[in-house]
């Protein structure tokens, strides 16, 4: 399957640059797979499409202030860092820009988020074949515990801010209201639409709520550079599915309820566990590089709440697979829905509108 098969035209003005005034004020496109029917609603209308006994599964990973600024100790040249993953305390894989300026042995002095030089330094230990740098930080006991005064929210590159400045609103809204476990370097954006009141409305409607934790990194947002889908290398990401969530999923399935995954990351956590356990959900903590594209045999997830994704992305491939499980024509159905979303002027990507696939 060609990567170009997952391309579509998107006017730049439809890429959302800011969240709606209130979290749940986004629009909701509902795609009913069997009927191939599309309807246009508001996000709070999601409740009316859920049934008592359904289980809503949310990703509770919390976005860390992963974007840092530094200077080369030898020349004073400015460097931007994006933390990717912690190997151990003060030892991180990072994206470095401009990457050509650094090599093993380079030392960096970090700035705080006001631009002042700090006593925290980083030494480049190695660079891998993809150009990512492994850094050893010093000058504090634990970098992760100091990120609030060092780093800023790592907004994706398609969201533009004058001078690159992150607003207070971004710091709040590029985070779900149920975020709990530090570790992601991008938001699980399908969850951004939920408010505490909307979650309470769902509970009152008889919908149970459970959580998985998948820390978003390169596996989710790395661009696809290969010509074919099968050639793409999926980076692994850490996830945790608790005994409590496993029990809730299994009880829901046994009682005939549906599993409603919020976001592609929740899907990947659930289906990773099912694939490793003959379709069963069990308590699991580990890593996954599951790459879901058509055709794919979904074992657990019955419905999906998601945002509108980038052309040629692994996320678009996943929702295409979900639109027609075990078949290949889901791509056409999703691209048709996306074309209608463009005509109806939906807002796309992280701060954009939502889609429910039933």
Summarize the entry for a quick read.
The chain is an alpha/beta fold.
Number of helices: 8
CATH level 1 class label of the largest domain = Alpha Beta
Q: Largest beta sheet, briefly?
A: 9 strands, mixed
- Give the overall average pLDDT: 96
Following the backbone from N to C, one meets helices and strands in this order, namely EEEEEEEEEEHHEHEHEHEHEEHHE
CATH topology of the largest domain: QueA-like
Distance between the termini: 25 Å
Radius of gyration: 21 Å
Give the amount of beta strand, in percent: 25-35%
CATH architectural grouping of the largest domain: 3-Layer(aba) Sandwich
Lateral strand order in the biggest sheet: 2-1-17-16-14-3-12-13-15
Q: What is the total tally of β strands?
A: 17
Helix content: 10-25%
Gross morphology is globular
CATH superfamily of the largest domain: QueA-like
What number of domains? Answer: 2
Structural class: alpha/beta
Structural description of this entry:
- The protein has 358 residues and is an alpha/beta fold.
- It has two domains: 3-63 and 172-357, QueA-like, CATH 3.40.1780.10; 67-150, Beta Barrel (Thrombin, subunit H), CATH 2.40.10.
- The chain contains eight helices and 17 strands.
- It has a nine-stranded mixed sheet. A six-stranded antiparallel beta barrel has the order 5-6-7-10-9-8. Strands 4-11 form a two-stranded parallel ribbon.
- The longest helix is centred in the last third of the chain and has 14 residues, at 330-343.
- The two termini are 25 Å apart.
- The model has no long low-confidence stretch (mean pLDDT 96).
